[in-house]
Amino acid sequence: MHAWPASEVPALPGQGRDLRIHDTATGGPVTLDPGPVARIYVCGITPYDATHMGHAATYNAFDLVQRVWLDTKRQVHYVQNVTDVDDPLLERAQRDGVDWVALAEQETTLFREDMTALRMLPPRHYIGAVEAIPGIVPLVERLRELGAAYELEGDIYFSVESDPHFGKVSGLDAAAMRMLSAERGGDPDRPGKKNPLDPMLWMAAREGEPSWDGGSLGHGRPGWHIECVAIALDHLGMTFDVQGGGSDLAFPHHEMGASHAQVLTGEFPMAKAYVHAGMVALDGEKMSKSKGNLVFVSQLRRDGVDPAAIRLALLSHHYRADWEWTDQVLRDAEERLARWRAAVSRPDGPSAEALVEEIREALSNDLDAPTALAAVDRWAAVQKEEGGTDTGAPGVVSRAVDALLGVAL
Ligand code: 5CA
Ligand code: ZN
């Protein structure tokens, strides 16, 4: 699948900083030292509805990861998937009487447009579940050969007990896992499973649903977790730097994915850091396509909201915090954008060197965007009150805000 066009990332004076980031698996910060090529996999959308502010906030967090690494002059190999066949997509297409392929294409196109408008850097590989099927089948076959998978009425399940490290990503107890499995696409109550938590690897063809020839697996379609594992292993290999997504993916999705990969390769861990963004709510509840309490990026754009203001609204919350989208959040961001634009449009200002270092320091410290915004606010306020003599400063500030925060002033 093609991704979306990259906005330019201006080079900055001075030295970028290594990223220290909170890892869900260890429950603390890890300093990543990726070498010359940093590798990151971020779970993509299930394209049955438009991009809402929750999705945008999560992709914003991982865009910052890329920008911090690029600032250290590293290359970034960023991979993202599109879950373009799955139960929620098929159910929505059925409900609305539309073709599921057309629905997925339409929403993926809209997602690309939203990401472009928000200046999110594109992945190097953008891969759909459907196009990944030829790579998924041999992995499921291999898991069967290893005794880590079993059949139940034609469906094939992964045995969580085959991975001695199972549970290390989320650190949850069995009761919590069982509850979340039921809520998030699992089927813990299905009779005949070896362990209620075992996730499906391959679902045998169902009447009226799309299916593919899975060779020795029979006709069917892939499970959700193996989709991301196949794509990640194919394009990044094992022990990549960051596995990312919203906090609702820590269990079961990233837990199961890590176990699949660890059993398949015999290596541990799948990722050096499991990084999870907080949940954005609207009217007191997590914004979600299934609940329908949504604010869409595309709707705000149609209403004439500047994408840079949307981006600043996202940046004004720490990525790990759960927060509530309100009109006030957006109004504050619009005012901040206007203040910053006024500041960088003046011919000179106070030196920008210290500010660039403050932004770098804040972002390298677990992507602390609110602290970075506060630093720019202070520079803009001083500039307004006292002016300055450095004719290069406004240019450096606007390049730094673009390169490190993805906001075009
Ligand atoms: N296709 C799968 C991942 S392989 C999926 O979860 N798709 S999704 O469309 O439901 O979500 C896409 C990303 O947005 C995920 O990382 C998810 O954790 C994140 N996300 C969904 N809702 C919210 C929300 N309310 N706040 C923050 N992030 C969210
Ligand atoms: Zn995923």
What is this structure's SSE topology?
Layout: E1 20-23, E2 28-31, E3 37-42, H1 53-71, E4 75-82, H2 87-96, H3 100-117, E5 125-128, H4 129-145, E6 149-152, E7 155-158, H5 174-183, E8 200-204, E9 212-213, E10 219-222, H6 224-235, E11 240-246, H7 250-265, E12 271-277, E13 280-282, E14 285-286, H8 297-302, H9 307-315, E15 323-324, H10 327-344, H11 353-364, H12 369-386, H13 393-405
Parallel strand pairs: 3-4, 3-11, 4-5, 11-12, 13-15
Antiparallel strand pairs: 1-2, 6-7, 7-8, 8-10, 9-10, 13-14
Helix pairs in contact: 4-6, 6-7, 9-10, 10-12, 11-12, 11-13
Zinc ion binds at residues 43, 81, 228, 253.
What does this structure look like?
- The chain is of the alpha/beta class and about 400 residues long.
- The chain folds into two domains: about 20-285, 3-Layer(aba) Sandwich (Rossmann fold); about 305-405, Four Helix Bundle (Hemerythrin (Met), subunit A) (Up-down Bundle), CATH 1.20.120.640.
- The protein is built from 13 helices and 15 strands.
- It has helices spanning about 55-70, 85-95, 100-115, 130-145, 175-185, 225-235, 250-265, 295-300, 305-315, 325-345, 355-365, 370-385, 395-405; strands at about 20-25, 30, 35-40, 75-80, 125-130, 150, 155-160, 200-205, 210-215, 220, 240-245, 270-275, 280, 285, 325.
- A five-stranded parallel sheet has the order 5-4-3-11-12, with helices on both faces. Strands 6-7-8-10-9 form a five-stranded antiparallel sheet.
- β6 and β7 (about 155-160) form a beta hairpin.
- The longest helix has 19 residues, at about 55-70.
- It starts with 19 loop residues before the first strand and ends with a helix.
- Zinc ion binds next to loops.
